[in-house]
Known about the structure:
The structure holds two protein chains of two kinds. Chain A is of the alpha+beta class. Chain A has a single domain, classed as Lipocalin (Beta Barrel). Chain A is built from four helices and nine strands; from the N terminus they run αβααββββββββα. Chain A has helices spanning 2-21, 62-75, 96-99, 233-241; strands at 42-46, 106-110, 114-119, 125-130, 146-152, 155-161, 179-188, 194-203, 212-220. A nine-stranded mixed barrel of chain A has the order 1-2-3-4-5-6-7-8-9. The radius of gyration of chain A is 20 Å and the shape is globular. The model of chain A is unreliable at 1-31 and 244-250 (pLDDT under 50). Chain B is of the alpha+beta class. Chain B has one domain: Lipocalin (Beta Barrel). Chain B has a nine-stranded antiparallel beta sheet. In chain B, a hairpin with a 3-residue loop joins β7 (180-190) and β8 (194-204). Mean pLDDT of chain B is 82; it is low at 1-38.
Amino acid sequence: MSTHSRRAQLCLLIAVAFNQGQAVHAAAPATESAPAKPDFSGVWLPNSKESGRWPEARPFTPAMAKLREQWTKDTAPIDFTRDDDHTSCLPYTLPYLATTITQYPFEIVSTPRRIYFFTEVYGQVRRIDMDAAPVSPEKLPSRVGSSRGHWEGSQLVVETTHILPENEGSRFPGSPALQVVERLSLVEGGELGKQLVDEITIRDPLVYEQPITIRMVYKPARGVAVDEYVCNQDIWDQHVEGSTSRIPWR
Amino acid sequence: MDSRQGVLMSRGWLVVALLTALNGCAKTSAPTPTEATAAEAPDIAGTWLPDASRAEPWPAQLPLTPVARGLMERFNPAEQDPTTFCMPLGTPRNMLQTEYPLEIVQTPQRIVMVLQPGLANAEVRRIPLDGSALPEPPDPSWFGTSRGRWEGATLVVETVGLRPDALVSGNGLGHSEELRVIERLSVVNDPGRGRTLIDDIELRDPKAYQQPLKTRRYFAWAPQAQLRESAGCIESEWIDKTWRQRLEEHAAAARKAGKAQ
């Protein structure tokens, strides 16, 4: 992971240097999106200053609060260097995937039928199927869930369900009822150029007593490439480098 | 792959086989590919399923250099296959495999190829079509650094900068850091089979091969197929181990506490 962090930091530095050198415009114009709709294509980085945060006290249902308390009791002592899915290389789930503020960029690629989000961290792929039929209740859940999108004026509205629930002990527990609605739009961000705003509403009646809304702001990251990211790379590197003459041309 | 995944996989393949059969029976709504000009490239976007039955096998005698041959003869998958450690297949192994679907994202500026073989996570190949030169020397990575161009209706993709610890195939066929992968992708309407993507793959690597290795893969058009995100390998191989270790520590701590009382 350290190699990737270093690389991402380098990218960030380059991006910052680039930002200082010239005004950054929004991502390259798309040629394939429907006309008159904003184009979100391009590379984005979370704007930590302008993005919202999860509420400190989350409105857990009494049942969920009890479950979490019991889990903490049963699992103690917790060592988050190991007892954390993501430290152990399991990718993020929604909504955390969208609300986390990292130094890693993500890229949006727009095509008429499907809008893709490629995240650098964990190399995840979100697919937003435009004007698609409702997702079959039998579809298996996944960490990024199943997303459908439609335009409301200049806003892209994305509804995601079928998210693989994190357990009650997770920092962001979920249930099969979890639904995430995102309203994406471009807003003027001064010298940063157009920023991408994602108004995220998290509804999960089995976990939260009321919906949680978080407003994320992403700034354009022109000149930054979304790199490949292999979380368990270090394990393999140690294995290979600790061995002798298996790969003589290394 | 654990048995649970195996069951899911076979169920998935049954659906896929049915869909493929249906595609073959009925005229699909897929657009007929046309000869592309520079301005009008054929549509290769969407989901494609590798056709294992038509995968060209390697020749019995591969023209390997003595170093590459020695490595292949001494190959120990438990120690030397990155997938044993949940690492990616890498390119070109991800294009040569015949198990997992390939999704192609296409815009005029670039092609993105996505495969999700259930190892670390998605394997994403980014292929700019902007006419820029390949970097020299490239920074080695699992999926390499690629550039693509349309030659008529054929997409030509060149990839360099591939990690030499990745394999070309699971039998120990490897490559050096000098590997250059040249792919020629085209879509044809195959009578009886329907819309088909052909990938002619050439591997040039003077350190590992005395002459270029060439093979071909066929992919069936499968618009209904879905790539499944899967961290199955990480979950079963990695988390299980972590948790087993943790449980053992808890048990040892409990035993110690019991003795102390």
